Every structure is written in C-alpha cells, then in structure tokens.
Amino acid sequence: MNKQPQPSKSLDIPVRRFITKQLIAVSKNSTIQDAAARMCEFEISSIGITDDGNIIGIVTDKDMKKRALGAGRSPKDPVHEIMTPELVSVDINSTINDVLKLMSKERVKHILITEENKFVGITTLSDLEDLDLQELETLISRD
Amino acid sequence: MKIFHFSDIHAGSKKHFREENLLHIIDEINSGNFDFAIFTGDATNEGQRHEYEIASRMLDKIDVPLVSIPGNHDARSGGIKLFEEYIGQQNGVFEFGDAVVIYVNSAIGDSNDGRVGRVKFNMLKKALNEHSDKAIKILAIHHHILPIPMSGRERNVLANAGDLLDLIQKSDVDLVVSGHRHYPNVYEVENTVFINAGTASSEKTRYGDVNSYCTIEIDETTKKVTTKRLNGENTVQEFPRKYKRIFSDFGEHKFRAVQISNTYFSDTSSFLSQHYEEAVKSIHSFDPDLLIHCGGIVKEGIPRNYDYAIEQLNKMNVPMVFTPAARDINYLGYHLFNRHFGDLDQRYTNEDILFQGLSTPQYDSSVGVVGETERKALLDRLNKAPQEFRSVYLHHNIIPIPHSREKGLLEDAGDLLRELVDADIDLVLTGTSYHAYATRVGKTVIANVNSLSSAYQRSRFGNSFNLIDIYEKAIVISEINSFWGKRRLLGIWERNQA
Questions:
Q1: Is residue B236 helix, strand or coil?
Q2: ipTM of this complex prediction, to 2 decimal places
Q3: Contact, A92 vs A13, CB < 8 A?
Q4: Residue among A115, A137, A139, A142 with most chain B CBs within 10 A, to mutate
Q5: Rounded to the nearest 5°, which phi and psi values hold at B122?
Q6: Are B225 and B140 within one domain?
Q7: B117 reaches A (C-beta below 8 A)
Q8: What is the pLDDT of residues B177-189, one digit of tens each?
Q9: How many structural domains is chain A composed of?
C-alpha cells in the first residue's frame, strides 16, 4: 500500500526544545579584539554584549567584517561601538515556525531567546537547519 | 504550591503491607494543606483484584486531587486492566493552576523492567510541547531514570532512560517524581530535580531503612524538597529555579583535555583509519594538555591489535592516560594492556588538577563493576587529594545516554554516582554507548564521549571527540567531529558556584 508522505511537524515545536540555553557574552567595555578572540575560542558566529550582566546588544561575524575591519576601526575600540543594539527576540515558547518567520521578516540570521523577558539563549538560521539532526530519540519499541 | 509525593504502597500484600503506615501518610496528606498529591505506582503487590480493592479504598481517603500511575507490580497477573477499573487512567495530563503533571505508565506486564514505548514517548513529547509555557512542569513515572543508590543490581531498568533524560532536559521539566526502588533519593540534574520517594508502606525497604515520602514546595525562586522518614527523620534540600544563562566572565584558562573512546584499533574495516588521521590533526590543532582515552582502545585484546594501537597512538603527540573497556581486556588483553599501557587505574596530576582513572570492566563480560572495597578506596583517594579540581574517568556510563538502550551495565552505578556527587567531584568522564552527552548532576559535570574512529557509532553528528576546557570559573565541553572538525557546544557549567 502506498503511503502519502507526511509533512514535517517539527516546525510547530517550541524553540525551547532546540536551543542551548546558554549565551556566551563579553562586557560592553571589552575591546573588539577581545570579542573576536572569544568568538574564535568557542567557534561561534555571534556573541552577546553585556552591561552589568544584562544583554544590551549582539555582535555577529558580519559586524566584525563590516563595522570593524571594513570600517577601518582599531581592534582596541570598545566592542559596544560595533554592536547591534536593536535586539530581535522571541519568547522561548514560540514555535520554530514563528522564529523562522521573524528571521525572514526582520532579515536577520540570529535571534535572541527570552524567558520571562530575560535573555536565555541565541539561535541562528544554521542551528535551525540542523533541526533534523537534533530529533534523535531512539524508537526502541512499540507500545 | 505544595505537593505531596508518595509511592510503592503495595496494598494487600499479607507479608509486606503496613496499613498503619499508609493511614499515617494519608493523615499527613489530608492535614497538610497540599494542593495535590502524586502517587507513583505499585498500588498493589501482585495486581490482584482483592489488592486493588484495598488500594482503592485507601487512596479514596485522600481529600486533595490525586494523580496516580501504575507500577510494575500493578501490571502483574494482567492487573493493568484492574488499575483502570479501581484507580484511574494509566497515562494523562493533570493541570493545576500554573502547574502541569504529565504522567505515564512505564510498566511492562509481568516484568520488573520499564519502558516508555514509541507511542507513549510521542504522547509525552506532544504534552511537553503543548504545555511548554506552564510555570511548573512535572513528569510522573514509576521507574527511576537515574540509577538509585543502595539498589543492588537492579540499578537502572528503564530501557530508553537516556532519551527520556534528554527530552526532560530539553523541555525544561522542573520535577520528575518516581518510585520503584524502595530507597528515597533526590538529584538535581541541570534545572530538573529528580525525586524518588521510597516506599510509603511496604516492609521491603532497603538497608534497614523505614517507610518514607516527600513533600515539595515550589515558589518563584526555589524548589524545596523534604524527604520524610516515618522515624521522624527529615532531610530538606533546596534548589534554585533561576539558572545562570549568560556567561561573560570565564576567568583564567587552566587546562585543556581531549576525551576520546572506542578507537577500535585493528586491521579491520571497523577501524576508520581516515577518521583517525583527521582526528589526530584536529586534536593537535587544539594543543591539549592531556588526552584521556575512556576505553575501547582496540577492537579485541589480541597482540596484533595492540601492536597496531601503539603504532597509531605514536602519531598523537600529546600526554595520554587510558582506562580499559571490556574489549581491551578480553583474550590476552589483560596482559597486553598492562604491558603496553601500564596500570589499570592510571592518573594524571598537576598542582591544581587530578584526573583519576577507574577500571570497571570484567574479563569476558559486558557488565562492569567497581566494587564496594574499590569504591571506598577511590573516594578516600579523591577526598584526600590536594588538587582543587578533581575528575574521575572510566569506561562505563553512570547516567543514561540518549539514543542507546540503557542496560545498566555498571553494576554499582547507583552507588558510584551518589558517592561522586556527594563528594562534589568536578568532572566524571565516560566512554560508552557511542553517543556524546554531557550534563550536570549536583555539582558534578558528567560527560560521555562518542567513538573516535569506530564504524559503530550512533550519532548523526558522526564520530567525534570531546574538547574539555577548564577555566577558573567555568567548564566548557564541546564535541568535535572526527572527520570534518565541525564543532558543537555540549554545555558550559559554572564552577565553584555557591
């Protein structure tokens, strides 16, 4: 008997299930060089910028190229001068679908995740492309 | 919110049921202003009708809303049908204000083992997705998910405990309540508190213990769990509800270790030589202080494989320590390991850091063991160590690993886990089940590593090794794909937290 292919349901799942609820950051007065070093150390494509422990912006690989190197800045300049302060964020209970829609609408590849209005993580388009890889539960038995 | 949790009443058993203890506990429930109560299974001893009649009569005396699930004893003699008749649904969702309790039957008819099969697993996933925004999420399941101390050989019996643990953590479940082993035990695993209430009214306690139950109080900032024994002894544990999410200050970088396992050196196709070559380059590029091999060095413990292992490992220009898996010591392996690698229990120390090896395999057996005498000696050694960072590495897993069947292969995993966590050991490294995983139990980070270069592995991320960075204020563990060098973060954990 032929079975109809089923559409993927994973887009309706809350983003909570797919993010690392940890955010790597540097303080706003760190230098651009320090921020770049930390991004290399952890091989991450974006980093949070904190003021007194709170996230006030993010810096991405693209910002490093465009606003730092490309703009001829000194690596010793404070990193907050190249950050994006208008944060695009979604609640941790939003679905993957909501996140993708927002990424498309805002033309961004990095979105911050909030829980009870506090930042708890960051997700990127490439993280979401790996969704399939993360759905790994073993199907050991019927029942 | 105040919740009462009790388990394993075993009503009707002529030999073991202590009715007066259950009546006492029911009085506690009815007089304690609880919002609701959760009973985590084994209402009866043999799943017989007359036992269900007694159990149902007793549970009916409870005046607050009650969530009940069956246990393995309730599924004996086909009794699971009677559970529905006398007690209630086997699986479901109970909502109370901001809280949700998702409950699943994990019993298998006429077996003591447990299982959350595919349909129920998906039901659980769906329920957790739908209730993602609840402030308090609770899972009730009869069989324990983490190995329980003082439990002898039946330390871990839920077949897909690893997948459940992973789902629980990804879904940010606040509490997991269980029974089964009649020994009360509480663990905090990342943000989730796992509670085993012990037995409320069965005489079959363990290690001379008495009957017990738990009360749970949750407010915005704290989860407070009180284990109450009927001899009046109370243990109170408090866990925070807010966790550190933003890491900006790591402090000084202290040490970098690479953790590998299951290299499977052999001249067969199960050893992936190209993966190994690429991994060697990748490991060198990280310039680690130490390489820790968690066993599965060779495919079998025969001279040809050991010779080949030495040839291959000589390409690795890094200080190394080893611990064997069963395959390393089978055939002539006992002698060969000793001849080529030295002691079974190796260690690495510097002024600040200790990595202590712990050999767990037994000759010609997949079941591993530490043993009571050896555990005592290990803990003694660890407690006397002057180093501020103490780590233990062994082959067998001590917590369930996702994507593999949990067989509880380390015989005394329940006791070992409890003792290492109670001693605040900083890091435990294991190398079994061919899937990377890292989490924290209490203050102890536990990391399992996938196979480096064996064709047999279970992760779609591919063969990999773990990169462990120890900072003054954090431990960071990443998984690195052996072949491509692709990296993903397994976790960051704060060190020396209050």
A1: strand
A2: 0.88
A3: no
A4: A137
A5: -70, -35
A6: yes
A7: yes
A8: 999 999 999 999 9
A9: 1
